[in-house]
Amino acid sequence: MEKKLEQRPRDILRIVLYGPESTGKTTLAQRLAEHFNTEWVPEFSRDYLQKKWDEEKLICQPEDILPIAQGQIELENELAEKAEKVLFCDTNLLETVVYSQAYYEGYCEPAVLKHALKAHYDLYFLMYIDVPWVEDDLRDRPFDRELMFSKFKQPLEDYNKPYRILKGDFQERFDMAVKIIEELLKDKQVGL
Question: 124 forms bridges with which residues in the sheet?
Answer without folding.
Answer: 16, 163
